[in-house]
Design brief:
With about 170 residues, the protein is mainly beta. It has a 4-stranded antiparallel beta sheet, with no helix packed on it. Strands 5-6-7-8 form a 4-stranded antiparallel beta sheet, with no helix packed on it. It has a 4-stranded antiparallel beta sheet with strand order 9-10-11-12, with no helix packed on it.
Length: about 170
Amino acid sequence: DVFRRGGAVKAHGLRAILPLSDDVALVCGEYGFVGRTSDGGESFTTISVGTRGCLYSLDRDPGGVVWLGGDDGLFRSADDGRSFSQVVVPSTEGAVVRVAAESASSRWVVRHRGVALVRDGVEDAAAFIPGGTLNDLALGAGTALLVKAAAQCLALAEIARAEAWPVVSYR
């Protein structure tokens, strides 16, 4: 069986899951909740992040650092999610709704009103996307795909040239 019933997660509104191994995973959600399992989901330990805001996104970079995004910004963990510290993020508006690690030193930070590519802790490229709320980002071979809800459109960018954000609309 691919799916099996695990233990109860005592949290409201789970938003993301990040498997770290066959037995270890992190989940995050509303009211600053982060849970960690080391027994394949049979039980979860609550991890204090220091926020009561909603947490939306989990990702792990190739160097093993776990990134967590939410209403109060961006957090990082160098110990597989046992502890987190807050990180200064680029100045685009809104909560960090998605963080996507491109490499150990480079990550995309998606906020409600903008997106930034951060390399070695410095904002390398940023774009303010008007007319709606950004919801997600997917990385592909040389391309980043942004999903924006209110304006019903997609924006594509080449990773090497993040300043170009042509809008591809759909209906």
